[in-house]
Design a protein that fits this description.
The chain is mainly alpha-helical. The protein contains 4 helices and 2 strands.
Length: 109
């Protein structure tokens, strides 16, 4: 019987696969606890939020689905926290999913 062992490389791969799942679960949990009854406003997606550029819309709603109400103090700085996850290429729709929570499309008229 052959003994199976894991190399450092395979452990890193497993850990790198676990991180995106953990981050997505964290986002989903925050979104589910958001109060949909809050009043909202539309704002342009700021240039500093490059992670959510070219997602098919240019205006986002505040507060976002994570409850962030300030672009400068919350949304922009926190958007950069997701860059490492998105750079893993874990899923082709990961960026769309993340941006739908941190910079949701504004449907207010």
């Amino acid at each position: 019987m052959k003994k199976q062992h894991q190399t450092a490389g395979s452990l890193r791969r497993e850990a790198s696969m676990f991180f995106p799942v953990l981050m997505m679960c964290s986002l989903l949990n925050a979104a589910l606890s958001f109060d949909l009854g809050q009043s909202t406003r539309c704002v342009s997606i700021p240039p500093e939020m490059s992670v959510c550029h070219d997602v098919g819309y240019s205006e986002m709603r505040l507060p976002n689905f994570l409850g962030h109400t300030s672009l400068e103090n919350e949304v922009i700085p926190k958007s950069e926290d997701w860059r490492p996850l998105l750079q893993t290429g874990c899923h082709p729709q990961a960026r769309t999913f993340v941006c739908s929570l941190i910079a949701p499309v504004c449907l207010d008229t």
